[in-house]
């Protein structure tokens, strides 16, 4: 399988602190990779680098066929990030937040089955500000999936979810994986996350252990219809 | 076509949020009305001065209120990491700029309509030449909204953005204040011939502001 993510000696700075201090990482198309590591190991920064939200200071980074050093923006329409924030507007309803994200990515408004899959259908007319933490996390994942991303970046997706919420989330992630989406999952909840992942990479002090694949396949070319 | 669709998507989102939150109606319009009232109290002993100064006072009130509208426009994007979501959305940054400018423009035009009634009633101002007055108002408001959005995104990620926006925006929109006041004075005096050169100045200001905004918004959004 071609590589969706290929990092070589990637360095990212937060101020002067090297949050990533030379990461090597390969992720093949369709893989679900668990990124583990202690607090401050660089998990969130790694996901934000892949999303093009923090600049690459040294090394090389190719995501979905795009060289992030030259162009950190063109691949964004093809990925989705579920971060610590929900990326939602408090005064918009669940359905409106979802529709805005889907239309922004040039997809039709999110289908009802996505709301049902994440147990959000009955909450469609409820404003984001009135949702519980767990409901917000599920909405955040629904927004990510509504974009139909080729690469899904998940930062602590289980945080704040109850048992039922975790089951709903895991089912949605398993479905996304079966649909061939590539995913990177940063988590402290390793037992839960390992059931979803096909491979684990540990970040230690800004470096990846087990990130590089032995048999390095070709890097995925950028899709021709991707926006420039 | 895609560009226009994306701009309308962003402006529609901002206006829908505004319709729910009613910040313009409950805070921006009352704030501007209070400014007009304070001017009226301060200058009331000399009714003639108040009437003569009405166009300038109107535009000072609009400028001060526009700062609230611009700050609100970016406060929306500060909540729940929405600014990162905009960056990740794949929307053309120029379309985001245009959409946010259109949303602020719509709110300011509503504000100006209300304030116009206010100055007519409170300041005894007569509106004689409506066409240059309306065109000057629209052009000045486009310039103010576009400038505000540029400085809004510039300061979006800063802790001191609420105090920085007025310091940065007010000096830059001086041409709008000057041109709109002169055009309004000529319109109020019933000499539209004197208003048209100022309308042209305001149109140029609007065009330059919008062009700078379209070009600068993307890089500023990435850096904010």
List the helices and strands and how they pair.
The complex is a heterodimer of chains A (228) and B (224).
Chain A: E1 3-14, E2 17-28, E3 32-36, H1 43-50, E4 58-63, E5 66-67, E6 79-82, H2 94-104, H3 112-117, H4 133-146, E7 151-155, H5 163-178, E8 182-186, H6 190-194, E9 199-204, E10 207-209
Parallel strand pairs in A: 3-8, 3-9, 6-7, 7-8
Antiparallel strand pairs in A: 1-2, 1-4, 4-5, 9-10
Helix pairs in contact in A: 2-4, 4-5
Chain B: H1 2-21, H2 23-43, H3 47-78, H4 82-88, H5 93-123, H6 130-154, H7 161-172, H8 174-189, H9 192-223
Helix pairs in contact in B: 1-5, 2-3, 2-5, 3-5, 3-6, 3-7, 3-8, 5-6, 5-9, 6-7, 6-8, 6-9, 8-9
Name of the CATH first level of the domain at 31-55 and 73-200 in chain A: Alpha Beta
CATH topology call of the domain at 31-55 and 73-200 in chain A: Rossmann fold
Percent strand of chain B: under 5%
The number of distinct β-strands of chain A equals 10
- Mean pLDDT value of chain B: 91
Helix content of chain A: 25-40%
Count of alpha/pi helices of chain A: 6
What overall geometry of chain B do the principal axes of the alpha carbons give? globular
- Alpha-beta content class of chain B: mainly alpha
Given helix and strand content, the structural type of chain A is alpha/beta
User: What is the CA-CA span between the terminal residues of chain A?
Assistant: 25 Å
Biggest sheet: strand arrangement of chain A: 6-7-8-3-9-10
Task: List the secondary-structure elements of chain A in sequence, H or E.
Answer: EEEHEEEHHHEHEHEE
How many strands, which pairing sense, and closed or not: the largest β-sheet of chain A? 6 strands, mixed
Q: How far apart are the termini of chain B?
A: 28 Å
């Amino acid at each position: 399988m071609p590589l969706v993510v290929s990092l070589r000696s990637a360095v990212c700075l937060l101020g002067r602190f090297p949050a990533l201090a030379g990461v090597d990482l390969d992720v093949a198309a369709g893989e679900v990779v668990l990124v583990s590591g202690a607090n401050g190991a660089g998990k969130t920064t790694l996901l934000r680098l892949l999303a093009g939200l923090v600049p690459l200071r040294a090394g090389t980074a190719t995501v979905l066929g795009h060289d992030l050093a030259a162009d950190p923006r063109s691949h964004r329409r093809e990925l989705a990030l579920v971060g610590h924030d929900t990326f939602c507007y408090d005064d918009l309803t669940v359905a409106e937040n979802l529709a805005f994200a889907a239309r922004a990515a040039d997809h039709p408004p999110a289908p009802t089955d996505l709301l049902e899959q994440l147990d959000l259908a009955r909450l469609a007319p409820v404003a984001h500000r009135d949702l519980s933490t767990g409901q917000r996390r599920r909405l955040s994942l629904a927004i990510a999936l509504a974009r139909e991303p080729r690469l899904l970046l998940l930062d602590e997706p289980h945080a704040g979810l109850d048992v039922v919420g975790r089951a709903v989330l895991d089912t949605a992630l398993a479905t996304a994986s079966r649909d061939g989406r590539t995913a990177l999952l940063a988590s402290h909840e390793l037992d839960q996350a390992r059931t979803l992942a096909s491979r684990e990479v540990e970040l230690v002090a800004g470096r990846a252990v087990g990130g590089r694949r032995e048999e390095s396949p070709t890097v995925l070319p950028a899709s021709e219809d991707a926006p420039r | 076509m895609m560009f226009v669709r994306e701009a309308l998507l962003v402006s529609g989102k901002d206006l829908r949020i505004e319709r729910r939150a009613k910040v313009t109606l409950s805070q921006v319009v009352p704030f501007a009305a209070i400014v007009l009232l304070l001017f009226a109290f301060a200058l009331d002993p000399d009714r003639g001065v108040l009437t003569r100064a009405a166009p300038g006072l109107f535009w000072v009130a609009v400028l001060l209120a526009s700062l609230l509208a611009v700050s609100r426009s970016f406060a929306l994007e500060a909540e729940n990491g929405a600014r990162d979501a905009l960056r990740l959305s794949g929307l053309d940054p120029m379309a985001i700029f245009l959409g946010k400018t259109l949303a602020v423009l719509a709110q300011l035009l509503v504000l100006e309509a209300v304030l116009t009634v206010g100055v007519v009633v409170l300041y005894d101002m007569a509106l004689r030449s409506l066409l240059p007055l309306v065109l000057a108002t629209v052009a000045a408001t486009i310039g103010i909204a576009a400038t505000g959005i540029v400085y809004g995104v510039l300061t979006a990620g800063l802790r001191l953005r609420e105090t920085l926006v007025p310091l940065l925006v007010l000096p830059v929109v001086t041409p709008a204040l000057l041109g709109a006041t002169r055009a309004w004075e000529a319109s109020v005096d019933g000499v539209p011939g004197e208003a048209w050169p100022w309308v042209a100045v305001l149109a140029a200001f609007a065009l330059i502001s919008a062009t700078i905004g379209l070009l600068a918004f993307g890089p500023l959004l990435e850096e904010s």
